[in-house]
Fold this sequence. Notes:
Blueprint: H1 3-9, H2 20-24, H3 26-37, E1 50-54, H4 60-67, E2 71-76, H5 79-91, E3 97-100, E4 112-118, H6 127-135, E5 138-149, H7 155-166, H8 171-182, H9 189-197, H10 206-215, E6 218-224, E7 240-247
Parallel strand pairs: 1-2, 1-4, 2-3, 4-5
Antiparallel strand pairs: 5-7, 6-7
Bound molecules: S-adenosylmethionine (SAM).
Amino acid sequence: MNTQKYYTSNPYPDIKFESRKDVLKGPFAWRMRTILRTLNVKPNDFKGKRVLDVGCGTGEKPIYYALHGANVDAIDQSEKSIKIAKEKAGKLKVSVNFICSDLFMFKYSHAYDYVFSLGVLHHTNNPYKGFKLISQAVKPGGILTIGLYHLFGRLPTTVMRTMLSLLPISFENKKRFVMRLYARRWKNEQVIFDRYLAPYESTHTVSEVKRWFESDGFKVIGIYPKYNLSELEWFGKKSFFIISGRKNNG
Ligand SMILES: C[S@@+](CC[C@H](N)C(=O)[O-])C[C@H]1O[C@@H](n2cnc3c(N)ncnc32)[C@H](O)[C@@H]1O
């Protein structure tokens, strides 16, 4: 199974939103604020700004930016995720321009104040090439935020994923198996499947991704989570990290 097929049968994260309150308050809003701290912006700073979300999945994050007044474009290669995203936005009566496209084929304009790509590039076969393409969309002075799996933090998961890949059972049975192991730990089953059964993922280090930003004309402005002396501190604990950078003016 390839990544596109996987996310077509397993749209991610598909968080249930009953009303705008579920987006603007509670655990989802709290997670969004953690992301936004890496950019040093407040939700209301999105008012009137242009935002692009690359690999938006089922659309929760673009809906959040749009509900704070941003003009949002959001792309994903999974048709089913885009369909769910449009339904979610329709239900909450919020306008987002959802586009079904492979990020490697998309025509990037240079017009966005904020570009996000969280949990996406590590599922592609050339994350750095993807980074370079996406970074073109950021206007001078604008901000790019990337989220990736961490080499050391993700190691126990990488070991488990390797063992699961070797199990001689069907994909459906693997799903049942991981649900049995992890249902208590993570409530959303798509989170469990994504973690252990997504067909391909790469892992990265902060120093590597900092180099991507710097060699592409960005200044790194925020990293989550924090570490004191070395990112080795994340070993087995922090499997996902977020980096934001500001594009140099001119
Ligand atoms: C783990 S989900 C992350 C979704 C969302 N960014 C979030 O933070 O909730 C990864 C998403 O990346 C999308 N994706 C993977 N490769 C892609 C590509 N080459 N072009 C566009 N989307 C891609 C998948 O379809 C999937 O929806």
